[in-house]
Amino acid sequence: MPYSQRPRSAYLHIPFCHRRCYYCDFAVVPLGDRARADAGPGSASIRDYLGLLAREIAAAPAGPPLATVYFGGGTPSLLTADQIGFLLARLRDRFGLQQGAEITLEMDPASFDQQKLTDLLDHGINRVSLGGQSFDDAVLLDLGRRHRAADLHEACVWMQEAHRSGRLRSWSLDLIQNLPGQSLEHWSAQLDQAVATQAPHLSVYDLSVEPGTVFERRQRQGALALPEEDLAVELMALTQRQLAEAGLSRYEISNYARPGHASRHNRVYWSGAGWWGFGMGATSGAFGEREARPRTREAYRHWLTDRERAPMAVPEQWSAIPLDDRLLVGLRCREGVALERLGCPDPQGLIDRWRDLISAGLIMCRAGRWQLTDPKGMALSNQVLVELLVWWDALADHEPIDPAQS
Predict the structure, then answer these.
(1) Alpha helices, DSSP H only, in 131-227?
(2) 145 part of a folded domain
């Protein structure tokens, strides 16, 4: 593969957090509410893990300077600014960083103060993803979050000040909708508070009940009253309308931004371009194939030792992300997908598969690109994507597709 075609983006997984939230199924290492990166029981564990990350970065094939870097977790803001600087230095040593590179850090309101934010900016962070989730203390308690609304409001003020000063290029606020017991009136008030923070980017995620989580156990016990489908559609329509009125444009199912503030790093995933992934549980897509690392630290340590003994081979030709993946991620974005341009086999068969959904107003074709309608199609996107997967599986099995079967 030509050097210039190798990935220009990197994701680093920082698994440490104070506690596991009730909806979380990510690869995390809870350290306890009093844990800090520079003292206490978590410090040796964190230092050990940073050593593993540095080894994996050093073992990666060389590539061109990075245009985006994303620290996700877990709670990356549990690390000290010096530790974040250490990891950025390892990336700089191996790949280099482009001038103006977007460098994002996920931050939890309970894990930093204004001085720490300043220190992180001094070490190169220029975009923050703030995990607020809600401005309601009762909701935060029910989600298992450690911070409270007052912490979130204070953190947003610090973000505003850093952004106005020009030191923080952009920042995003995360919220969760379709929560147990959520009403339109309550959610509208949450959106009002989010808009008032002046965040130039909002990520609004639907609650997803994942296996093995506290929420999944509550659901099995009949103790998780999630909104019905009609209310879920109304909640998403309210989100789209209220944020659009505030000047935030929806550019992906869960993401809204003011002009110039869309996440460059996330665009890499959605475009099908390649990226490096580092750390336990991280997934890379360097050469057209996704590769997931083990989700426990010891398994990751063994995986890394094997990788060092047999380094990743760089193919001579770049291989595109598989078509079904490109269709799935492309449909999540505002631009949608052009089936013929992607080289889609039997596009008419897929369109036939979508026929009832087209009639129901969930998906449409505009200027040759198939797009989920907003908000109804995006609220019920799984119905569209399931039909795509059924069509794809039938192609793979060389079975005829009967559009009447759904």
Answers:
(1) 137-143, 149-165, 184-196, 214-220
(2) yes
Rounded to 5°, angle at Cα 149 from 148 and 151: 70
Could you tell me if 49 and 71 are in contact, meaning their C-beta atoms sit under 8 angstroms apart? no
CA distance 328 to 148: 36
**φ, ψ of residue 161 in degrees (nearest 5):** -65, -45
Total residue length of the chain: 406
Residue 294 lies in a domain: no
Same-domain check for residues 58 and 145: yes
Q: Which of 271, 301, 326 lies at the terminal end of a domain, its last residue? A: 271
Angle, in degrees to the nearest 10, between helices 323-332 and 381-396? 170
- Which single residue is written with the structure tokens 């073992």? 59
SS3 of residue 4 by DSSP:
helix
Same domain membership, residue 219 and residue 110 = yes
Write the pLDDT tens digit of every residue in 170-189.
999 999 999 999 999 999 99
Torsion angle in degrees (nearest 10) through CA of 213, 216, 220, 225: 140
Listed residue (389, 381, 21, 20) closest to 206, CA to CA: 381
SS3 call for 308 = helix
pLDDT tens-digit profile of 30-60? 998 776 666 555 688 999 999 999 999 999 9
d(CA 114, CA 39): 19
The domain tally of the chain equals: 2
This prediction has a pTM of 0.92
CA distance 127 to 107: 10
Residue 22 is inside which H or E element, if any?
none
